[in-house]
Structure formats: C-alpha cells, structure tokens
Amino acid sequence: MAGGGRTIEYTPTWVVAAVCSVIVTISIAVERLLHYLGKLLKKKNQKPLYQALQKIKEELMLLGFISLLLTVFQGVISRICISKDLAKTWLPCTEEYEKNPPKDVHLQDLLNSTFRRIRHGTGRHLLAASYNNPNYCKKLGKVPLLSETALHHLHIFIFVLAVSHVTFCALTVLFGGAKIRQWKKWEEAASQEHCDLDKEAIKTKFTHVLAHSFVRKRYRGVGKKHELVGWLQSFGKQFFGSVNETDYTTLRLGFIMSHCRSNPKFNFYNYLTRAYEADFKKVVGISWYLWLFVVVFLLANVHDLHAYFWISFIPFIMLLCVGTKLQHIMTQLAQDVAQRHIAVEGDLVVKPSDDHFWCNRPKLVLLLIHIILFQNSFELAVVFWILVQYGSHSCIMGSTEFIIPRLVMGMFVQFLCSYSILPLYAVVAQMGSSFKKAIFKEHIQEGLILWAKMAKKNADKKPPSPSTNLIGTDGDKSSQDESTK
Which domain of life is it from (predicted)? Predict the structure, then answer.
C-alpha cells in the first residue's frame, strides 16, 4: 500500500479510539489552561497581558492552520515534479554526506542517545498514506517537489517553532516583570521624599549638577574623545545594573515635570508597569516581516555556508546595539543638563526629547526588540528541531563547536533581553517628547475613546451655521433679481 502501512479500514478500533482520546485530551487541557489563565488576568485587571495571551493564541492558531494546509495538500505537492538536476541545487547536505555520514563521537553520542527513541518514533513514519502513486514522478523521469517525509519533518519544525515561541514569550514577561517589580520600593521612597519636602517647603534647595550621582557617573566632558568614552561606558553598563535607583528617580522626575507637572505625586511605577505590559503585547506577535525572515534563512541553509550558525550572531549583535543606545540616551540626558547648568534650584530635572532616539522614533527600539526576540526563538527552535529530528551528527547542525556557541548565545540573548533590555526600554522610552496612553488607567482610556467617538459623531451631524444659511439666501435672492432683470 502507498505510504507503507495499513489504513484505518484494517486498524483495530481500540487503537484509533485510544490515539484520538489522547490527542483530544491534551488539546482540551491546553485550551482550558489558556482559558483559565485569561480569566485570571481579566479578574486581576491585567488587560494588556490578557490581550498578549490572545495574541499568542492567534499565533498558535495560525501555525496550526499552516500545518493543516500542509496535511491537506500533501498529495497535491507530491504530484508536483521537478527535474533531477534542479533537485540537486542548493542542498543543505551534499549527496556524498548522505552516502557516507560521519559517525557520532563522544558528546554527540550522548546527545543522540537522548533523542534516538524520539527519532525512531517520528523520523521515518509518514503522516498519512499518499493519495497518489508514489512512482508518479519516477515514471516521468523526475522527482517530487517535496517528499512526504520532508513534509512530515516540516510539520515537526512548525510545532517546535510554536512551542519555542510561546515558551520564550512567557519567560520574557516573567523575567521582565520580576525586574520591574524591584523598582516599586524606589517609587515609594521617591513619593515619601516628596511628602517630606512639602513639610519643609520654606527651605530652598540647590543642586550642584556635576556633584549629582546621575551626572557624575555619566558625564565625561565635551569632545570626541569623551564622547567615545561615553559610548564605551554605555556598552558595558547594559550587562550589570542597567537601571539603578538614581537613574529611576531622575528619569521619573524628568517625566513628571515634562508631562504632568500639576501632579507631582504621579505614580510613575504604575505607569511603567502598564506601558511594559502594552509593549509586551506587541512583542509576542509574529508579523509578516518576521515570516519573511524565516523564509529567507530557510532559503540560505545551503551546505558549507553554515547559515544557521551565522544567524545566531544577528540577534546578539542587534541586542548589544539596542542596549548600548538605551544606556547612551541616559548619558545624553546627563550631558544636556551638565553643559547648560552648574547648579539648579531644587532637584535635577532632565528634559525628555525624541531627538535622542534613532530617527526620532522611540517605537523603533521596540521594533528591534521584537525582531531580536523572534530571531532568537527561531534560532533555538532550529537547534532543538535538528537534535530531535536528525541528531547532533546532522550536517545541518554542523560540528560540536557550532552547537555549543549557538545554545549559549541563544540563552544569553533571551536572559539579557528579558531581564535587562526590555525593562530598560520601558523606562528610557518615556524620555520621548510625548507620553503613551498607558498614563491613563484602563477605565479612563475607554472613557476618552468613547468621548472622542461621540464628539466626532456629533461633529458630523452638526447643522450648518446661520451665516451659511444667510449667505445662501442672499445668493439665491441675488440670482432671482438677476433673472428678473
């Protein structure tokens, strides 16, 4: 029989029922888990996180639909034939490698012993029997565009990508949230200090700019040499203590004095939390340009190019650039104050501005973080998929010296981006010229949106002004007089 196995007609009913029961049970359990998690987030008024969960469910549905299309059209795809010469171009592994694969050694034996049972259960069995004659292309002197075995492996890759993406998104919000929660005590201390100053308002306070901790640690003077030192300092600071208490309180005061001067007791921490959750909702999605990235690197996976090894450096390099830029923005804020003032009355106040960001767009940094997280998830998903499907000896994976750096680099990027860079962006992004709608609570946001819609609706229904009617009347009367004449 086509496909190399018995059909359901000759399979015991208890086997079919048992397999379906297990699959349905697992699917329902995952669906209920996501449902109750959503109810919990709504109960705790975590609307941005709830929307992020809905986004993840949409991505899972999309990946499931892609897998379904591959299953439905696998018969059609297997009947598309191409020439043998065309089938030998741009191969991930050479034919010589397939005929004489290298033997696993030492560490590879350890890895393969872990995944061998999984591969024996999935690697050579097909998803379903072929709907067509398997020798269809062979009779034409050609080969199938994509074999059923390759389609099956592609199914597994999509599944691994979905699991990796969801897992790393969850780790992102856990690590980032843990970091931001550490700032709550700084907010309480800053609010308490403000209350104490109110009681002693008769006393005048002066701050020496260069002696202030925020400026002293970042200002290095004027000139190209000092500017280079500032960039190097920003590069190193992203790895440890990305935001300290002085940074937080200084940026907090700068935001309040620029955007809500009338409310000096504004809770900056709650605003940051809402803004971080809103940003996370945008980060978890898979946009069209990210799918384009997947297609491009699947295309570039040609033997001897080691494309999957080199792409692991892309999120790492991008992350270092983003972290350095965010730190340097704080350095620029300190330099702006130090170059204008020697001493200021009251506390040190920095001036937020979009000019400090790339292309004057703070949202561009979030876009880069989005690309970094997805690229890193894709890279780690490829590593896990190759280990499960082909083993560590596969030519796609490369030698051992290629495996370890990819895993280490991927884990490092995930941790640094989640625990340091994304929380750093949450506070530095507020140093733009405008504020986000997260400055308002959820019910106020909804009220403002409703008010804006009603105002626009009333403006469209507004009757013409009396002056317009008079002009129209006069114009009609003049026209009648002219016609009479």
Answer: Eukaryota
Average pLDDT score over the chain: 76
Structure-block tokens of residue 15:
């086997």
Please report, for residues 339, 464, 473, 476, the alpha-carbon distance to residue 469 in angstroms, rounded to integers and kept in the order given: 60, 7, 6, 10
CA neighbor of 112 nearest in space, from 411, 482, 388: 388
On whether the CB atoms of residues 427 and 332 are closer than 8 A, the answer is: no
Q: What is the pLDDT of residue 169?
A: 78
The SS3 call for residue 345 is strand
pLDDT digits (tens, 9 = 90+) for 279-326: 777 777 777 888 888 888 888 878 777 777 788 888 899 999 999 999
**CA atoms of 423 and 95, how far apart (whole Å):** 48
Radius of gyration of the chain (CA): 31
What's CA 408's distance to the chain center, in Å? 20
Beta-sheet pairing, 81-82 with 343-345: unpaired
234-283 pLDDT per residue, tens: 888 888 777 888 889 889 888 888 888 878 788 888 888 888 877 777 77
Are the CB atoms for 303 and 317 separated by under 8 Å? no
Q: Are 330 and 428 in contact (CB under 8 A)?
A: yes
427 or 128, greater pLDDT: 427
User: Which residues have CB under 8 Å from 316's CB, separation 6+?
Assistant: 409, 412, 413
Reduced to 3 states (helix: H, G, I; strand: E, B; else coil), residue 124 is coil
Residue 130: phi and psi, rounded to 5, are -70, 140
Residue 366 has pLDDT above 50, yes or no: yes
What are the helix and strand counts (H, E) for the chain?
A: 21, 4
> Do residues 366 and 282 make contact, with C-beta atoms less than 8 angstroms apart?
yes
Q: What is the rounded distance in angstroms from the CA atom of residue 131 to the CA atom of residue 336?
A: 70
CA distance 281 to 290: 16
CA 182, 187, 192, 196 torsion: positive or negative? positive
Name the pTM for this structure.
0.74
Q: How far is CA 36 from the centre of its chain?
A: 24
Q: Which two tokens stand for residue 483?
A: 């016609």
Rounded CA-CA distance 379/400 in Å is 16
Instruction: Answer whether residue 350 shows pLDDT above 60.
Output: yes
- The tens digit of pLDDT for each residue in 213-238 reads 888 888 776 666 778 888 888 888 88
pLDDT at 321: 93
Buried b (16+ CB within 10 A) or exposed e, 444-471: eeeeeeeeeeeeeeeeeeeeeeeeeeee
Give every CB contact of residue 221 below 8 A, 6+ residues apart in sequence: none
Q: What is the CB neighbour count within 10 angstroms for residue 178?
A: 12
Residues 6+ apart with CB under 8 A from 298: none
Please state the φ and ψ torsions of residue 481, each to the nearest 5 degrees: -65, -40
State the Cα–Cα distance between residues 289 and 277, nearest whole angstrom: 23
